[in-house]
Amino acid sequence: MIHLNNLCKTFGGRVAVDNITLHVPPGEIYGLLGHNGAGKSTAIGMMLGQVWPTSGEVQICGFDVTADRKHALRKVGAIFESPAFYDYLTGLKNLEILSAYTAPTPRRRIQEVIEWVGLSGREDSKVRTYSHGMRARLALAQALLPQPELLILDEPSDGLDPEGIHEMRQTIQRLHRELRLTILLSSHLLNEVEQLCTRIAVLNQGRMVFQGSLAQTRQREKWVRLKVGDFASAARELRAAQLIKDQRDGQFVALNENVGTDQVVRLLVGQGMSVYEIAPEEETLERFYLGLMSEGKEIN
Amino acid sequence: MLYQHLRNELWKLFGKKRTYIGFGAFLLAQNGMLLVFRFTHWQRQVEQLLDGNGYLAQDYISALTVAVLMLFPQILLLMPLYAALVGGDLVAKEAEDGTLRMILARPISRFQLLLAKWLAGVIFCAVLVAVLGGTALLFARIWFPWRNMFVYAPGMVFNVLGASEGLKLYLFSHVFLTINASVILGLAFMFSCFNMKPAAATILSLSFLFLNLVLESIPFFEQYHEWLLPYHFRIWIFIYTQPLPWARMAESSSVLLAFGATTFLIGAAGFQARDIKS
Q1: Does B36 touch chain A (CB under 8 A)?
Q2: Distance between CA atoms of A137 and A147, rounded to whole angstroms?
Q3: pTM of this prediction exceeds 0.90
Q4: How many Å from the N-terminal Cα to the C-terminal Cα in chain A?
Q5: I need a labelling partner for A271 at 20 to 30 A (CA). Which of A113, A223, A289, B128 fits?
Q6: Which residue of B has its CA nearest to A90?
Q7: What is the model's pLDDT at position A296?
Q8: Is A84 in contact with B104 (Cβ distance < 8 A)?
């Protein structure tokens, strides 16, 4: 659905996106993670033909965005952080105007979408009277009007209260389930990405530092919680035996490749140490993400 | 599709209160000028001018005469200001508000979008000029009778006309005023296509016009007047001369239309090349 090949973008001398290659298959909820200024919005801008790539190729729905934007974006809807509308016009008029940039949309279809997003009864009010949550729903409505196959969401929960974030999350799941949309979700809310996405890409200072499934993020490093009488001595013994490569927080050890917890227990018991508990610790996305970011800092 | 986009642009343009500030200012200025004309020595000066040239002043101090007199300061000051304000807003305000990013997430070409916006701007100019001319005549008619017309602009026109012929020429002159307003709007529109604030686009275009006026007033540039915009903007007043200077009118119209097309194309090229970011 989305293919970015060796995509680069520089603004003056500053590299915003550095040689990104990304493939989003149909039917996925794909997360684009990264800190502020990591290049997520620039990458999305290039996907939508708003930002010209310095080099590389962007294909959406099989069409090159730079060369054939009209066909590439025909089945695409997008929502941006803090969606902007013509505040002095009604919600309905805003939808009519924005949808007409794709194709003239029958009034019946607009009403259907208004109902779907839960704005019925307020469509004839001026947008300036809308709450933040209602504006988010209106943004969703305008994105759904062209009957998209791909939805690009750039920080959709930005500025929403916890209730609004929860509602947005449920809506995204509903969109995926009921309308079978492919969704690209850009966010720095790790919790949101963890709950919604099946695959993620992580950007750090314009570079892609990870691309894969959420399951892969959990398997990347094998941490084990170890409760023993003297953790420091146990860790020293395990390192000497080359069973672990790292330790942290006085209770976690990172096992070396192909090392099982049974080997750890056997060694410690053999050394006369008491082992009270040993259990694999599942890596959270947050820890994984922070690990990637600190690796990036070390490289720089 | 262009028709649909144009309709949308007109909705956006005429849907906001900001657009009507210009109309309101015109109404205030017109009534103020009428009072000044009626109750100061301005009217007496015009009467003396007519009497001095052998015309009976009471036959020519009419609604049409006063309406044209009222047009001069408004065309010099208010019309450029409001045309430039709206032109500067057309693209830059949407970019500033973030709605441009919403539009350009859709499969519309940037050129088509700009063309619709520019056409909406030209329609705004036509409406602005029509309202300006219509209300000037209406308010003048409230205070003055419907009689013959006298048009005087130092160094350009001194003419007296019958009421019906005067009205025809009055209407005809508004076609050229619309061209003038569209050129000013197009200039601000061009700047607004680049990455700048709406106010900056308006100020740049007004500065350009002001520079033209300053250059025109410097004796050294006398032989280069044809290269400056105000020389061509004045064709609307030459409508009232007899015989009509068709060659001058054709020349100035062509220059203004070419200038308008050039500013549009420069703006379109700049807009096509720029990155739209939040």
Answers
A1: no
A2: 16
A3: no
A4: 33
A5: A223
A6: B15
A7: 60
A8: no
Q: Which residues contact A146 (CB under 8 A, 6 or more apart)?
A: A74, A75, A76, A77, A99, A102, A103, A105, B106
Mark yes or no for CB contact B11/A93 under 8 Å.
yes
Q: Which residues of A212-226 are buried (b: 16+ CB within 10 A; e: fewer)?
A: eebeebeeeebbbeb
**How large is the ipTM?**
0.85
Q: Is residue B143 part of a domain?
A: yes
Q: With CB atoms and an 8 Å threshold, state whether B5 touches A100.
A: yes
What residues 25-44 of chain A have any CB closer than 8 A to a CB of chain B? 41-42
CB within 8 Å: B11 and A73? no
More confident residue, A88 or B58: A88
Q: Does the distance separating the beta carbons of A52 and B8 come in below 8 Å?
A: no
Predicted confidence at residue A219, as pLDDT, reads 66
Task: Domain A2-217: give its CATH code.
Answer: 3.40.50.300
B163-214 per-position pLDDT tens digit: 999 999 999 999 999 999 999 999 999 999 999 999 999 999 999 999 999 9
Across A8-32, average pLDDT:
91
Cα of B216 vs its chain's centroid, Å = 19
Structure tokens at A292: 């990637």
pLDDT range class, residue A298, cuts 50, 70, 90: very low
- Number of domains into which chain B is organized: 1
Give the range of the structural domain holding residue B252, as residue numbers without chain letter.
2-273
Parallel, antiparallel, or unpaired for β A55-60 and A2-11?
antiparallel
> What value does the mean pLDDT of chain A take?
87
Q: Taking the domain A221-282, which CATH number applies? A: 3.30.70
Q: Give the tokens for residue A295.
A: 């690796």
pLDDT at B219 over 70: yes
Give the chain B residue nearest A10 (alpha carbons). Answer: B275
B65 assigned to some structural domain: yes
Q: Which residues of A touch B97 (CB under 8 A)?
A: 84
DSSP per-residue string spanning A133-144: HHHHHHHHHHHH
CA B100 to chain centre: 27
- Alpha carbon A176 to chain centroid, angstroms: 15
Is B278 a domain residue?
no
| Strand partners of residue A59 | A3, A64
B 205-264 → A contacts, CB under 8 A: none
Contact B105 A152 (CB under 8 A): yes
Q: In what order do the strands lie in the sheet with A199-204?
A: A76-79, A150-154, A182-187, A29-34, A199-204, A207-213
Q: Nearest chain B Cα to A52, which residue?
A: B275
Q: Are B278 and A51 an interchain contact pair (Cβ–Cβ within 8 Å)?
A: no
pLDDT above 50 for A184: yes
- CA angle at residue A206 from B105 to A69, to 5 degrees? 25
Q: Is residue B186 part of a domain?
A: yes
User: Residue B275: which of A45, A70, A152 has the nearest Cβ?
Assistant: A45
Q: Which of B170, B67, B81, B175 is nearest to B122 (CA)?
A: B175
Kind and range of the H or E element at B216?
Answer: helix B198-217
